[in-house]
Each structure stands twice: as structure tokens, then as C-alpha cells.
Amino acid sequence: MKKLKLIGPITQVLTLDHLPLKGALMDDQLEIIEQAGILIEGEKILQVGKWESLCKAFPEAEIFELKGDFVVLPGMVDCHTHICFGGSRAKDFAMRNAGKTYLEIAQAGGGIWDTVTQTRKLSPSELAKITANHANRHLSEGVTTIEVKSGYGLSVEEELKMLRAIQEANRSTSADLVSTCLAAHMKPRDFSGSNSEYLEMISATLFPILKKEKLTNRIDAFVEKSAFSSDEISPYFQHAKEGGFDLTVHADQFSVGGSKVAVKFGARSADHLEASGDEEIQLLAQSNTIAVALPGASIGLGCAFTPARKLLDKGAALAIASDWNPGSAPMGDLMAQASILATFEKLSTAEVLAGITFRAAAALGLNDRGKLSAGQLADFILFPASDYREILYQQGKMKPVEVWKKGSKEVGRL
Ligand SMILES: [Zn+2]
Known about the structure:
Distance between the termini: 29 Å
Structural class: alpha/beta
Bound molecules: zinc ion
């Protein structure tokens, strides 16, 4: 038997257990254990229960005694980021806010191609270091599992460089990084063929290497007028599915179409959805595809939010992710963004917390995290509060004072 650790007493533990994957939630559905303890064995939770009874039942456990009021949540899961990148797009941000168009920004050397150029210039180890730094910042704010996309390489070699850098970063941070291949972000400027020819080249050349090197099991694509159409992406997704990859889609950000493709191919998630209408919402609600809201992109671009309320009311599974990227979502603060989304979309605290924990984990195909119950990973975060509602109320300004990842204290501000 591995050594036991017992943390407590905790004023409130929100387990996020016994909640449905899909649909609206009310706060009185939240399981809250008061004066609680968390018993850990190795990387996993053995039991969550009353502090006093756990102390009595497991006298051999190493005690991590807390003094004061604390609320504990499962470690957050950010199921959509682009934190592997070079350069900064601060100039674009200023130009966009000053009213310049997408075209004017691109003509001034900005836009996504600038990030591709800056990312291609970096060595694999420089890129891994940047990615690990971003991951560690996220971890210190309570995000213990982070999806990271490629998509700023846009050639076989450069996409491989990014995915290997993410793999290297994963070895140097305590957060879990889940990589995704987004070679279908856009057709690169230096590829002379058509969109379909680019996608064919990627699926024929890159996919087998991803499998062989175990670089990722996830394929993403940007389905949008400015990137790839539904018709163009269908054979690409078919190929990926036949290869055994999980799918995820940048869908309905500015125009609809992506969510339909996501549902048709049984994608794990359809992300963005700012432009989704009743038809798309209905379709997602009837599917097993998780709808992912990205409030950071709405805040970064000054655009409408994902219709999160409607999605939940129709019965969809809603996750919330940061979309942390250098262009449209530079903030990278998941709790702040989720809290802001709640005020605009009228989400209950339970819906927000589910969206950044177990529902986000489901978007990544993970069921071993996002809840605090026996058998789950011991990933949890402590906030200096006596009432869980204080956390969203402070709109991201309250940071966790301790972050535990796989049974070890990784961040301690206490
Ligand atoms: Zn994105």
C-alpha cells in the first residue's frame, strides 16, 4: 500500500459528482461536503468525507492540516488552447481595437501568418520552453489539465516540431498536456495547391507519423469561410476517423457549418459556436458532441458570446475553455472568462463549474478527472473562502492558494 495523505479540514468540498454530462444545472444539485477531508493514495483519491471520521479511520495517513476557511474544487480542465506559439500580436490587438480591418492588419504584417512565421523561427527546445511557461502559469491559477493545439507550423515538418515541443513541455510541467493536431488551421501561404490538396498531403504524410511517434490522437480543423469549407474538410475527417483519431472542430465562429460536420463525424467537441442558430443548437443538443464556449475569444475580439444558455436549456453538454492564443484570446485566464460568460449568458454556478471540470474533461475523452470522488486523480485546488460562490463573484481575481496535481502539492501560496 502506498503512503496515504489526508488534507483538511476543508470548509466546503465541491465534488462535482453525481451530475449529468448534459443539460442545465441548478446550484442545489451541487454536492457540497462541509468540514471535509480528502484522502489520497498515490496519484488518486481514495475517499472524500468528513474530516473527523477520516482522521479516525486512517490514523496512519500523513496529515496536511489546514488552518482557516477553504473551498476546494476539482483542478480545472482547459479543453481548448493554442499556447504553443512564438511572438506576440499586441500590435494587431491595438490596430483591431482602433478600428482597422482584418485586411489592413494582414497588410501591416499581422494576423495568423505572423504567428506562423514567429513560431517557425523557434528551435524545438525554445518552443517547448515557451509552452511549458504558459502551462505553468495556467497550473498556478488552478488549471491542472491543458489541451494544446499545433497549427502554427502548417507544414509536415513544422507541425511535427510543434507536437514534439508540446510533448517535451509535457515532460517538464506538472500539468497534463493533451496535444491536438491542428494542421488544418488554414492553408499555408507557401503551399501552391488547393485547400483540398493541402489536406490530402497532410493526411497522407503527417497522420502516419503522428501515430508512429504517438504525438497525438486528436485531429482538429478550422471550418470557416476563411479556412476550410464543410465539403473540403469531410474527406480529411473521414481519413482521420479511419485512422482511429478523435476529432474536434473549430465550428460556427463567424458562419455556420462546422457544428454540422462535427456532429456528422461524431467529434468529441465542437468549439466556438458564437454564430450557431436554433438549428445548430438543436443538432448539438441531440448529439454526444460537447459544445465548447470560448469566452476569451469573444472578449479578445469584442464579439458575441457563444449561446451557452440556449445550448444548456436545449440539453447540450457545455464546456468552457480559454482558447488562449496570441491573436484573438491573449488573456488566458479561464476562471475570469468563465465568470464573465456567466454574467452575460446567465449561467448558474453549477453550470460554470461543470463546464471547467468534468464536462471539459469529457471533451478530451477523459473520465478520470474533473470530479472529486474515489478513484479520480487527486487534482484539486484550494481557494481562501468559506462559501463557494465567492470564487466566481470575484471574477477571476481570487486565485487558488494551493494546487494539487496527482496527489502532490504543486503550488503553495499558503
Ligand atoms: Zn482555437
